[in-house]
Write a structure and sequence with these properties.
195 residues; alpha/beta; UDP N-Acetylglucosamine Acyltransferase, domain 1; 9-stranded mixed beta sheet; 7-stranded parallel beta sheet; 3 helices; 21 strands; globular; Dynactin subunit 6
Length: 195
């Protein structure tokens, strides 16, 4: 059984009810919504910077080697990831599945309810879509996507602490200030100062 060890990078926001087991490193600026499962059952899970991991996502490493996730990825509601490597700027849509020891390149999209085959290597810019898990190569503007992704992260860092108990990486971040000024926190401070 792997040791329980969590490292949370600066400006990362992790909702308290996220289930984490094993050796996990969460990069700076990454946001984990409520009800996520990050399970390093065998080897560690290393999550890069500025990823968005939405509700009910399961990321699991059943291999002894690290599962490495790059930067600026979006894991949408209810998706399941069991791969060996996830590149940068990918979108794993709702209820999509990355199976086995699959390696995903950069700037890929796994469509809603689609899945990979087990143990495959998916090249950069691949889109998997449709009932038959069709594939094509995309040619979108990455700079526009990066701008939207950054605004999405800023919004989540502001809103999630208002409605959830969170663990916040780093010290003296804007998110910590927002969380400490949450009405529930302000009331707790007032109680403490009245004693």
């Amino acid at each position: 059984m792997p040791k329980e060890q969590f490292a949370i990078g600066k400006r990362a926001v992790v909702c308290q009810d996220t289930e984490m087991k094993g050796e996990i490193d969460i990069g700076s600026g990454t946001v984990l919504h409520p009800q996520c499962k990050i399970l390093a059952e065998s080897g560690p899970i290393i999550i890069g910077s500025n990823n968005i991991i939405e509700e009910n996502v399961t990321i699991i490493n059943k291999q002894p080697t690290p599962l490495i996730i790059g930067d600026e990825n979006v894991f949408e509601v209810g998706c399941y990831v069991e791969g060996s490597k996830i590149g940068n700027k990918n979108v794993i849509e709702a209820k999509a599945r990355i199976l086995g020891n699959t390696s995903l390149g950069d700037n890929c999209v796994i469509g809603a309810v689609c899945s990979t085959k087990r143990d495959e290597v998916i090249p950069n810019n691949t889109v998997i879509y449709g009932d038959h898990h069709n594939r094509r190569t995309q040619t979108t503007c990455a700079s526009q996507q990066s701008s939207l992704h950054a605004r999405h992260l800023d919004y989540l860092r502001e809103v999630l602490p208002k409605f959830n108990h969170v663990r916040i990486g780093g010290a003296n971040t804007a998110t910590e200030s927002a969380a400490s000024n949450h009405p529930r926190k302000v009331k707790e401070k007032e109680k403490d100062s009245s004693h």
